[in-house]
Amino acid sequence: MSIVKNKWSIKKLAGHCGARLEGVSLANASTSQLEEMRSALFEYGVIVMPEQHLNPEQHIALAEFFGEIDVNRFFTPVPCHSAIAEVRTSPGQTEVIGGTWHTDHSYDPAPAMCSILNAKKLPPFGGDTHFASMAAAYRSLSPGLQNMLRSLCAWHSDSSFSNSNVGIKPKKNAFRDPTIHPVVIKHPSTGVPCVYVNGDFTTNFENWSLEESAPLLSYLYAVITKPVFTARVVWEPGMVAIWDNRLVQHYATADYSGYTRLMHRITVAGVPLESF
Ligand SMILES: [Fe+2]
Fold first, then answer.
1. How many whole angstroms from 243 Cα to the centroid of ligand 1?
2. Given this model, what pLDDT does residue 4 score?
3. Residue 214, Cβ neighbours under 10 Å: how many?
4. How far apart are CA 135 and CA 74, in angstroms?
5. Please, is 105 exposed, middle or buried when counting C-beta atoms within 10 Å of its C-beta (0-12, 13-18, 19+)?
6. pLDDT in tens, 150-208
7. By CB neighbour count within 10 A (0-12 exposed, 13-18 middle, 19+ buried), where does 57 fall?
8. Ligand 1 centre and the CA of 233: distance in Å?
9. CB 67 within 8 A of CB 255
10. Residue 98 Cα to ligand 1 middle (Å)
């Protein structure tokens, strides 16, 4: 009888999103192990893998398994590795990058499909990342509201970076025109419907004013981020987290003032989003 070695063990983090995968070294994973990991990503929205300790080259190789790297135009790159964004909190900061609910790159016509965060230096406490399922939020809505939302598109803008107070100093030419996405998207790989609006980048519904859009957008943000639809990731040294920006939103907790936190992030290119 053969003994199966190096197999992923998969344990859910919460009821509606998140899973912890252990047992395989990402740096040495086979194609089938990587494919199983990608299936888990599409099923759970966010996956965390402890004790990986990836160096920049291994981090890039992992990203390239998913597709072409989408270099963020606002973040500072890691020295000598322009494909990797540095997500750094200095001891004096009281606000952090990503400290409000959002999906990465929704301001782009083809938003990043996934983000891969690699823990390099962690504070002694705090700095957890919360995730919320936009698919579970959609399932929880009444058929009447689901139908209405499916008829809508919304504008997304990168303009919130111009007021950034978290160490991001964008170049003037980094900004692009707003882009539009369906409010209910169909996940490009699984077809699962998700409510695709977020508080950082969505500005208003197509053909609706900002003022008219605000109440319904606020309601949708409140539904998506209900605690029942969330999972909380407590970082560990060497941990890698991957989330699908079409399935989950995330929120970085700014509760470790006085300490440094350093993460390396790569975003992988996505596709234009279609309505459900
Ligand atoms: Fe983010």
1. 10
2. 52
3. 13
4. 28
5. buried
6. 999 999 999 888 877 666 777 778 888 999 999 999 999 999 999 999 999 999 999 99
7. exposed
8. 14
9. no
10. 5
User: What is the Cα–Cα distance from 98 to 81, expressed in whole angstroms?
Assistant: 21
User: Does 3 score more than 90 pLDDT?
Assistant: no
User: Of 202 and 76, which is predicted with more confidence?
Assistant: 202
Rounded to whole angstroms, the Cα distance separating 144 from 223 reads 15
Close Cβ partners of 248 (under 8 Å, ≥ 6 residues apart): 17, 45, 46, 103, 131, 132, 133, 134
Q: Whole-prediction pTM value?
A: 0.95
Distance in Å, CA 250 to ligand 1 centroid: 6
Taking alpha carbons only, the member of 236, 175, 261 closest to residue 52 is 236
How are beta strands 230-233 and 129-133 bridged, if at all? antiparallel
**Residue 59 near residue 84 (C-beta atoms within 8 A):** yes
Pairing of strands 19-22, 46-49: parallel
The pair of structure tokens assigned to 253 is 């907790």
Distinct helix (H) and strand (E) counts, the chain: 5, 17
Position of tokens 């949708």? 220
Which residues are catalytically annotated? 102, 104, 250, 265
- Return d(Cα 74, Cα 158) in angstroms, integer: 9
Where do we find the tokens 């053909």?
207
